[in-house]
Automatic annotation (TrEMBL):
Coiled-coil blocks: none
Gene Ontology molecular functions: catalytic activity
Pfam family, one: Abhydrolase_6
Cross-referenced PANTHER family: HYDROLASE, PUTATIVE (AFU_ORTHOLOGUE AFUA_2G14860)-RELATED, MONOACYLGLYCEROL LIPASE
Domain AB hydrolase-1 residues, every copy: 56-275
Protein name according to UniProt: Pimeloyl-ACP methyl ester carboxylesterase
GO cellular component: membrane
Source organism, top-level taxon: Bacteria
Length: 293
């Protein structure tokens, strides 16, 4: 793991940013890009939507960025502000200047980003590894969260990841051919069709040295610290996590959590069940909207 996230060469960075900008131009709602200064560098945040409700703050899966949310942003930003983050230490438009060494640093970076946005309480949500990042914030700052939503959490959020998956990901990382990348994409998110720009961004992103600590299972104490209203949505057929283990640990340590497992769908839950999952998430946020003062 690199100390500072960076591309290995200028050519790769230029190719990535060209693809990033091409995808960005298709963002379907008006937006403003914000650069938020933190102790770890500059966080790029895309602001969409408007309204008086508590804003949504969205964290993508690894190694994604704010553009991950493009297929869903019209509904998410229909009646409230949405902040979608690029993740420090992953390929995107953040500019990292100091290492993020551990979970406390991850929490510190995200808390400083919220401070820089000037928001009081937010509905924090993440997909895959982004769900783990969101949960880390909840372990220390549940008082800042109107709600916390974990959407099809990552492979090491509640238990150690499956060795079979790790070996496939390791092979794709060490020998990242187009064929291996497409096989991994089909395994993880079979209903997601990436266009040319998305593939160009993914291929150029292979030349980025990641600099965010790896996901580790949340401890029992960390789960008990999640006192904000919690929604966790699993996919029964996912190859990434074990939803039964996750649901059991949540029942044991966060009995108030709203947990649901969707049948006949995998890690591509957001795409394959958009018409049910996004309204489910938004209804949960609306149910836990903080009182206006």
């Amino acid at each position: 793991m690199a100390k500072i996230g960076r591309f290995t060469n200028d050519k790769a960075e230029a190719a990535f940013l060209r693809a990033y900008d091409a995808i960005s131009a298709r963002w379907p709602v008006p937006y403003t890009d914000l650069d938020i200064e933190t102790s770890f560098g500059t966080t790029r945040v895309r602001k969409s939507g408007s309204g008086d409700h508590a804003p949504l703050v969205l964290l993508s899966g690894m190694p994604g960025n704010c553009l991950f949310w493009q297929p869903f942003i019209e509904e998410l930003a229909r009646d409230r502000v949405v902040y979608a983050l690029d993740i420090m230490g992953w390929p995107g438009r953040c500019r990292q200047t100091a290492p993020i060494r551990d979970q406390d640093d991850i929490i510190g970076w995200l808390a400083e980003t919220l401070d820089g946005l000037g928001v009081d309480r937010v509905h924090l949500a993440g997909y895959s590894v982004g769900a783990w990042l969101a949960a880390l914030v909840g372990t220390k700052h549940s008082d800042r969260l109107a709600s916390l939503s974990m959407l099809e959490p990552g492979g090491a959020t509640f238990a150690k990841p499956k060795w079979s998956l790790l070996l496939k990901l390791l092979a794709a990382g060490l020998w990242p051919t187009d064929r291996r990348m497409r096989k991994i994409a089909a395994l993880l998110t079979p209903s997601v069709a990436l266009d040319d720009e998305a593939w160009a961004m993914a291929k150029a992103g292979r030349k980025f040295r990641l600099a965010l600590p790896w996901e580790r299972p949340l401890t029992d104490d960390q789960l008990r610290a999640l006192t904000a209203p919690l929604l966790v949505l699993f996919a029964r057929d996912t190859v990434v996590n074990d939803p039964e283990i996750g649901a059991r640990r949540l029942r044991d340590h966060v009995p108030s959590a709203d947990v649901e497992t969707y049948p006949d769908v995998g890690h591509d839950l957001l795409w394959a069940r958009t018409d049910t999952v996004i309204p489910r998430f938004l209804a949960f946020a609306a149910k836990h909207e903080p009182a206006r003062t």
